[in-house]
Specification:
Elements (H helix, E strand, L loop, with lengths): L6 E4 L6 E5 L10 H4 L8 E5 L15 H15 L1 E7 L1 H11 L7 E4 L10 H13 L2 H8 L11 H12 L3 H18 L3 H7 L3 E6 L8 H8 L4 E6 L6 H4 L1 H13 L3
Parallel strand pairs: 2-3, 2-4, 4-5, 5-6, 6-7
Antiparallel strand pairs: 1-3
Length: 258
C-alpha cells in the first residue's frame, strides 16, 4: 500500500475490489458497517481515509483536485473495480472520473454538486474561519458526534464520534475552504459527471441537509449513464445508517463492469 494512507481492508483478498472514500472528518472506520452486509460477501472493501481527515496524515495541498490525483493512484494500486465515496469523498470520486484519471463505475453518497447543495454548517464555518481561523473548528469538533445518527448502538456511536474528534482543526479549515473553492470554480460539477461518461449513482436521503438543485436534477436526468437515487427517511451518513441500501448500489455498480 502506498505510504501515507490510513486504510482499512475488509473482505476476501481475491474478491472484486471497491475503494471506499469517507467524507470530511470521517475515517475508513465509517465503512465497516457496509462490509457486514450479506450482499458484500465475496467483495473486498478497501476503505481509505482522505489525507488530513479522520486523524490521517495530510498529503498534497488538501484540495479536491489533489485528493483526486492521489486517489487515482490508489485505485490503480489496489485494483479497484468500483469507487464508492461519501460526501467529500463522493466529490473526490467524481473528480477522479471527471479528470479522466480512472474510468470505472462510481457510487456517490450525498455529494454536493454546487455550493448551493451544501448544508449551512460548513458554509458558515468557512466564513467564520476567515475571521477567527481555527477557533470555530476547534469548537465544532468537540460536538461533531451530534451529527451522527441517533439510533446507532451506543458503542458504535461512541467509536465514530471519537473518530470525528481526532481531526486537526487547522487541516479541516484548509480542506473545507479548498473544497468550497472547488465548487465555486465549476459552479456545478453535474456537467462534469455527465461528461465523464462512466456508470454513476448519485444518492441522497430525503432527510439530508445536502441535496441537489432542480437544475442539477434536470442535468443528471439527461445523462443515460447516471442514476439518481433518493433514499426515503435517510440522512447524511448513508453507509452507517442504511448499509443495506448502499450494498445494493455497490452490487449494481459491480454488475455494470461485466
Amino acid at each position: 500500500m502506498a505510504p501515507g494512507w490510513d486504510v482499512l481492508e475488509l473482505g476476501p483478498e481475491d474478491g472484486p475490489t471497491v475503494l471506499c472514500l469517507p467524507g470530511a472528518l470521517c475515517s475508513a472506520e465509517f465503512f465497516r458497517d457496509l462490509a457486514d452486509e450479506p450482499r458484500m460477501a465475496g467483495v473486498r472493501l478497501v476503505a481509505a481515509s482522505l489525507p488530513g481527515h479522520g486523524g490521517s496524515k495530510p498529503q498534497g495541498d488538501l484540495s479536491v483536485a489533489d485528493h483526486a490525483r492521489l486517489v487515482a493512484g490508489l485505485a490503480e494500486e489496489v485494483g479497484a473495480t468500483v469507487v464508492l465515496g461519501h460526501s467529500l469523498g463522493a466529490n473526490v470520486a467524481l473528480e477522479v472520473v471527471a479528470s479522466g484519471r480512472w474510468r470505472g463505475p462510481v457510487v456517490l453518497l450525498a455529494p454536493s454538486l454546487s455550493r448551493a447543495d451544501e448544508s449551512l454548517v460548513p458554509r458558515a464555518l468557512d466564513r467564520l474561519g476567515q475571521v477567527f481561523f481555527d477557533l470555530p473548528f476547534r469548537a465544532a469538533l468537540r460536538i461533531a458526534g451530534l451529527s451522527l445518527p441517533r439510533d446507532l448502538p451506543a458503542e458504535r456511536h461512541r467509536a465514530l464520534a471519537a473518530d470525528l474528534r481526532r481531526n486537526d482543526p487547522h487541516h479541516v479549515r484548509l480542506s473545507l475552504h479548498a473544497y468550497l473553492d472547488y465548487l465555486d470554480l465549476h459552479g456545478s460539477v453535474a456537467e462534469r459527471l455527465c461528461h465523464a461518461a462512466v456508470p454513476a449513482w448519485v444518492v441522497h436521503g430525503t432527510k439530508d441537509h445536502v441535496g441537489l438543485t432542480r437544475t442539477e436534477r434536470d442535468t443528471l436526468a439527461r445523462c443515460p449513464h447516471v442514476t439518481v437515487v433518493t433514499v426515503p427517511g435517510a440522512r447524511h451518513f448513508l453507509a452507517v445508517e442504511r448499509p443495506e441500501v448502499v450494498a445494493g448500489l455497490v452490487h449494481d455498480a459491480l454488475g455494470a463492469t461485466t
